[in-house]
Amino acid sequence: MLAGCGGARSGAGRAGASRTGGAAGTAVPPVEAAPPPGPGFGLTEDNAGLLWSPAPAAAPAAGSTTAATALTPTAAAPANAAALAGDPASAAVGATAAAGGEPTAFVAARERLTALRPTYIRLLVDWAALQPDPNRPPALDAAVSGCARTVGPCVPYAGLRDELRAIASQQRAARARGEDDFRVVLDVFGVPGWAAHDPSGCEAGGAPAFARAIGPRGLAGYRALIESVLALGASEGVALDWWSPWNEPNDARFLSPQHASCEAGSPTVAPAVYARLARTMGSVLRAAGGGRTMLLGELSAVATDSPHRTSIPSFVAALPQDVLCSTLPSPPPAGAPPPRDPVAALEQALDARGDCGRRASVWVTEAGAGAEHPGRARTAGAGDERAGCLALAAQLLGWEHDPRVGAVFQYSFREDPAFPVGLLSADLAHVYPAYGLWSRYTQNRARGELPASGAALCA
Asked: What does pTM read for this prediction?
């Protein structure tokens, strides 16, 4: 079993635990090597233009995909795909690409991403954007603008298909080096309107179908989505071995309602909804044959319960035992305050569930340094950027000494304007100190060394 906790945009924030499922038959055998010290490095980045290997003949010809007229939102965008018909940035880049060019910033950023050699690449699968019509299959190769929301430069690409093709180019280059990098981690979110349950419980006013609990019809569609993604991976020769059933299921922005009513003490209903998704995903993966791992949780860093959120301890305690483990759950220690560090809170909650919980390892699936709160701009200045880097380095060093933490993921590579904690600015013009942190960390790890201090990582 794996359990992951996503790193804060100032530290840690998401949690998950995993179970073994089935697999498609195109997996590339891993390269045999002694495991390096410290947690593995993961990276969230969906832009195919940044994921291609910069090796000669690996990257696609610019302009090979038609410019998109709508953005595919990331996990930080619960508002669903915002229409951008006639978006000037997309149109301008489309014209440039058609003339055979490509923004220089994209070329340089691609080389920077490749230099990090991430063990894992986390891809966000927005089901609501991929399948708005139940009578059509998920559009896994639909045109995407390649912007950072509305920020250019933009190089359009063909959705998840191009993302996997780009990752395949990186995997080939890694195997040539005798390495096993760029393993895919898929994280699903977003309920299409036709698949959503009717409003119920303590739902925020005006909550979109995107965030509602999945209805009975939706489970069949969810199953078909997973099957179609598995088939796509097989056709592109990319092993899809790591899966997360749903993004931030303890937050009403992604799964609503969280509680049966808005009264204090109302029981959480989110874990039961999430369990149906996890069971469905597990059955599909098992039926596909082979072996895969399911990352459970992806929990937001919530320390206490509120009408529209469920704390990490409460969510883990309420997960059905067949989803979490085969042992009977144990109640959390009475009166014990939850730790402020979400990784520690997750570990404590897992330990309270018995043997299988105590054996679970933890992944930090979102980490980053930058703006303190979602939607707010970064504080300008080199001093603040370095301070953020040092704060992230301190957390990373702490996780290094926790034997249960198996991987830490940076969210994101290119800055998401809604969650400005990226390694490069949204316009790709500025490299933040945190990029140097991860570059030094991965280089040290490849040499079998651990960094001595946060200052050394942020030098």
From this structure: 0.84
